[in-house]
Write a structure and sequence with these properties.
273 residues; 2 domains; Aminopeptidase; 7 helices; 23% strand; six-stranded mixed beta sheet; elongated; alpha+beta
Amino acid sequence: MKAKIIIRSETGDDITTISEVTAAAFKTLPISNHTEQFIIAALRVTKALTISLVAELDGRVVGHIAFSPVTISDGCPNWYGLGPVAVLPEYQRQGIGTALMQDGLSRLKGLNAQGCCLVGHPEYYRRFGFRNIPGLLCEGVPQEVFFGMSFDGHTPQGVVEFHEGFKASGPPEREYSGSRLSILACGADSLAHAGIPTKIDAKHAIAQNKVMVIDGEVVITGSFNFTKAAKESNAENLPVIRDKGLAARYAENWKEHEKHAEVYVGKGQEPER
């Protein structure tokens, strides 16, 4: 019996998986800047993730689709941008993307949206009713890959601007009011909100380790902070050691701590409804 595809709204428990699914889906696409997972995280942090759905198969999240508001220069309201949409490579061509598209568009119409637009492959999105609309443009995007679909019969004319989150090139920053920090991010919260797998080792009273192991052969350690103050005024030290043996020892130590660490989803994160 063929497994049933379940489409549902994301929850806080899905955030890391959504990031992983999205990164995997776009990993080999030459047209991608490979920032799609950061775009989703940025939309989520700024509360611009209007609809965020996952596709579940046999209890595993294998796909995701996002919708967020756009602005149009002619002032036409209630239009939304579709994307990113992603399906794990090994689950593609099984109707999962289609299910996400159909359910997502249905929910968008249920929010009284007037239309939806996207940048994508011409042969794929036309099947859902999208078309190239003369006079509706997105700066920097070839007209043949920019599509729109009106839900109410009115076709806007002008330039479409996607949410600022689409400019994300890395983990988003999040402002914490009242914080003495001038940066708009806070350690583990920033990582967790960006969809980067994050764990907290709370077994030890104090653990002041700052270590990065890169490609199994480079160790970066020392007393350092990636902050404006560190760059401009602090006295920081950043040893970079190229030693596979040392890297392996650090990695093994990390794995031991991971065994008793707990998954961290970030403070202030509210699951999308």
